[in-house]
Amino acid sequence: MYPLKHSPVRANPDLLPRHYRQGMWAWILHRLTGLGIVLFLLMHIWEISSVNRGGGAAFNETMNALRNPLAAFGELVLFIAVLYHGINGIRLILFDLGIGVRRQRALFWGVLVVSGALLALGLSAFLRLIFGTAPALVPWR
Amino acid sequence: MSTREGSWAWILQRLTAVLLLALLGAHFFVLHFVPSETYITFSGVAARLQGVLFWVIDFGLLVISLYHGLNGVRAVALDYWPRVDRSLSLALIIIGLVATLYGGRALTVFIRGM
Fold first, then answer.
1. Which residues contact A47 (CB under 8 A, 6 or more apart)?
2. With an 8 Å Cβ cutoff, is A138 touching chain B?
3. What is the CA radius of gyration of chain A?
4. What DSSP assignment string belongs to A96-128?
5. Which candidate, B112, B100, B109, B12, places its Cα nearest to that of B61?
6. Which residues of B lie inside 8 Å of A (Cβ-Cβ)?
7. ipTM of the predicted structure?
8. Along the 114 residues of chain B, how does pLDDT read in single tens digits?
9. Interface of A with B in 41-70 (CB under 8 A)
10. Which domains does chain A show, CATH number per domain?
11. CATH 1.20.1300 correct for B3-112
12. pLDDT tens digit string along A52-102?
């Protein structure tokens, strides 16, 4: 697993994933969600820019093609990633302002609770889209 | 990259983060809580983008999210490949400019409505 004789993980067992504590998970999740959101962002710009390639007809075609359960599932994953990244981002900015650094572990649980609560608010709309009981991408119908 | 540029990258990442919270909140609200057509269509989006506020939100999101996202990619990558700063930064700047111009052109197509 860690083949290097002088690997930092050998020198410091705290670097083993099973020894990670809340702050480390918060940091890893922030990075992973950030990288995932960047991939989505580039895809999103590419899809919207179908108007550059074939005008309004191409845009409508792209939007129709994206109206499927798999895309809705992808949007659910995006929703979770954005909620976590945004709310943990608030936690990080508070630290930069000198607020709550000593309570960073408790604040990580707070981030998960707030993200989870907002996810719960949106979840039914996503489930209707994924399981095909909603007509379109509009939660108010 | 010098310390001075590094600290600008750091402060801009925080500033754009706060702007994104507001802009993304607006984007989410407009798309999901302002009743419009059932399906997303070119004509529907073009009609909405006739309002100045909406194209300010969309252009703002395009530029600011690309900056924040690509600067984040740079920060992550430099932790693993610290010596590629110049070439990596140049590549990310090019990706950002191309995506801004391409996406910006798409927005102008909607605003002109044709």
1. A62, A66
2. yes
3. 20
4. HTTSSGGGHHHHHHHHHHHHHHHHHHHHHHHHH
5. B100
6. 14, 17-18, 20-21, 24, 32-33, 35, 38-43, 45-46, 62, 65-66, 69-70, 72-73, 76, 99, 102-103, 105-106, 109-110, 114
7. 0.92
8. 456 777 888 999 999 999 999 999 999 998 888 877 778 899 999 999 999 999 899 999 999 999 999 999 999 999 999 888 899 999 999 999 999 999 999 999 999 986
9. 41-42, 45, 48-52, 55-57, 59-60, 63-64, 67
10. 22-130 (1.20.1300.10)
11. yes
12. 999 999 999 999 999 889 999 999 999 999 999 999 999 999 999 999 999
Distance in angstroms (rounded) separating the CA atoms of residues B102 and A33: 25
Query: How many C-beta neighbours within 10 Å does residue B15 have?
Result: 14
Which pTM value belongs to this model?
A: 0.88
